């Protein structure tokens, strides 16, 4: 294995993920603020981010605990928000499945929205990478995303209530996700998947435990797969916009 | 707050379990074509499904549709799609939100 190439994959991962620092930073701070406002101590807030390391689920859990929901409901709802992680795991397995078990465990722990999106887009754009290069790229992506997630959570907990809510920080999350998927809508199948997923998620938003998200996501995936199947092998060669 | 630690540890184990499910159990065994074809669209399906309700019914406004947030989302989507730029999309969305916070419409 060429160590030079592996190191360059690592640094390419760091570079590609660097923009996410501006997403993870405010988002983690926001969680720190929200969690301390809900009565969690600094240590509890930090451990939440270290142990769970899943932004949307953490927000869901803190919000429900604030509403005094039963612990079982909190757990089920938060894990339902995280069901998409199983899809990420399945989606990244063709690329990182050959790794030894402990490395797969490490990847699983660090597999969050941003690390998944940045990695899978690169793996698909450069299919000729070795598994070692892909793993190095993934760890490169993790570097500016996961440690800052812990640090900025702590920082946010310290800052506490001094972040003014009228700054529109709540909208950092949707904008970040849009910025992630919009450049990836390169074929008709991708676009159809995105539109159907969004519409179905809205139509089924009334379902409890964030099941609307799951309905939308599954409908989108089925749509994308079906459009690709009908378009035959041409699907991935169609020019984007 | 003992319940808090049950939630933290339960969510930690549950989240890791979900993330490890396929990576750990499937490993490098080949997966069928139809499954791989679906998995190619995971990212572009999950993220819009996650975002759409947040854009249309923002939590900050108590679920009321907000023209400013719709505009910010549209700006990010268009810039990201047309220029294939993550920075550009974040910048466009942030610019609309900042303009909305400081300009009295």
UniProtKB/TrEMBL annotation, chain A:
InterPro entries, per the entry: Brnchd-chn_aa_trnsp_permease
Whether Transport counts among this entry's keywords is yes
BP-aspect Gene Ontology terms:
L-valine transmembrane transport
Q: What membrane topology is given?
A: Multi-pass membrane protein
As for subcellular location, the record says: Cell membrane
Q: Name one Pfam family in it.
A: AzlC
Keyword annotations from UniProtKB, A to Z? Cell membrane, Membrane, Transmembrane, Transmembrane helix, Transport
The signal sequence is: none
Transmembrane stretches, by residue range? 20-40, 46-65, 135-155, 167-185, 192-211
Query: What do the Gene Ontology cellular component annotations say?
Result: plasma membrane
Protein family per UniProt? Belongs to the AzlC family.
Query: What is this protein called in UniProt?
Result: 4-azaleucine resistance probable transporter AzlC
From TrEMBL, chain B:
Which keywords has UniProt assigned to this entry?
Membrane, Transmembrane, Transmembrane helix
Q: Which residues cross the membrane?
A: 6-27, 39-60, 72-103
Protein name as catalogued: Branched-chain amino acid transport protein
């Amino acid at each position: 294995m060429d160590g030079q190439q592996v190191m360059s994959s690592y640094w390419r991962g760091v570079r590609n993920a660097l923009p996410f620092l501006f997403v993870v930073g405010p988002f983690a701070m926001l969680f720190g603020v929200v969690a301390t406002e809900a009565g969690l101590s600094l240590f509890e807030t930090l451990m939440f981010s270290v142990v769970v390391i899943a932004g949307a689920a953490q927000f869901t859990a803190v919000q429900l605990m604030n509403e005094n929901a039963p612990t079982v409901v909190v757990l089920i709802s938060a894990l339902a928000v995280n069901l998409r992680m199983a899809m990420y795991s399945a989606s990244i397995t063709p690329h990182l499945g050959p790794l030894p078990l402990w490395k797969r465990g490490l990847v699983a722990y660090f597999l969050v929205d941003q690390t998944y999106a940045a990695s899978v887009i690169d793996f698909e754009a450069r299919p000729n990478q070795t598994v070692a290069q892909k793993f190095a790229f993934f760890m490169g992506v993790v570097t500016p995303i996961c440690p800052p997630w812990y640090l900025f959570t702590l920082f946010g907990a310290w800052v506490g209530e001094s972040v003014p809510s009228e700054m529109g920080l709540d909208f950092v999350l949707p904008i970040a996700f849009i910025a992630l998927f919009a450049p990836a809508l390169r074929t008709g199948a991708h676009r159809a998947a995105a539109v159907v997923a969004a519409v179905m998620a809205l139509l089924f938003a009334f379902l409890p435990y964030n099941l609307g998200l799951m309905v939308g996501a599954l409908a989108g995936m089925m749509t994308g797969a079906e459009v690709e199947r009908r378009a035959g092998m041409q699907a991935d060669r169609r020019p984007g916009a | 707050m003992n319940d808090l630690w049950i939630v933290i540890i339960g969510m930690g184990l549950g989240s890791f379990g979900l993330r490890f499910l396929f990576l750990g159990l499937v490993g490098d065994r080949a997966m069928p074509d139809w499954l791989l074809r679906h998995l190619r669209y995971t990212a572009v399906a999950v993220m819009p499904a996650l975002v759409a309700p947040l854009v249309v019914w923002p939590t900050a406004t108590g679920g009321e549709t907000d023209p400013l947030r719709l505009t910010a989302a549209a700006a990010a989507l268009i810039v990201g799609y047309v220029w294939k730029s993550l920075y550009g999309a974040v910048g466009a969305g942030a610019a609309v939100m900042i303009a909305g916070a400081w300009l009295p419409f």
